[in-house]
Amino acid sequence: MDTKNFKVNSKNSLVEWIGRKVTGIHNGTIEAKEGNFTFENNILSSGKFVINTKSIKILDIEDTETNTQFANHLASDDFFNSDQFPDAVFEIKHAEPSETNVYHVTGDLTIKGITHSIITSLQIVKTDNIAVLDTKIVIDRTKFNIKFRSSNFFTNLGDTLIYNNFDLNIHLVADAL
Fold it and tell me: Where is the Lipid/polyisoprenoid-binding YceI-like domain (predicted)?
């Protein structure tokens, strides 16, 4: 059996987030801290990546003071509680090859110490020296005890409501070991 391991290069990787509320959207980036992927006979067999919740950046708010307040709020217990839970982790439990370079994946996502299974599709383009993974994961934040201004838990929010789902657009570049 031919086994090939790849390690995520966090400097060349990018994770973008989008959150929506009644009155608009916010977007930004978050650091891919580390990760790895293993291929058996050129087929993805396992993988894991870690996102640093302390590295959340907001790109759509230009005012420095407002941006800092929002970043601190996202790091607070209302959202990611980054001091207590600095890492969010996605671990591939099963990868089923589909069309060229696409896998249907079941994995465990852990945020704030809470783990839920999710299903997504990954596109991975691999050479001998590099593997590039792209995916979009839609996450229901309320499953991870992120309840702030959620209509599942609060009423009469009006235009302060924040939608439960947020997106992570993940682009990981991994180097062969």
Answer: 5-175
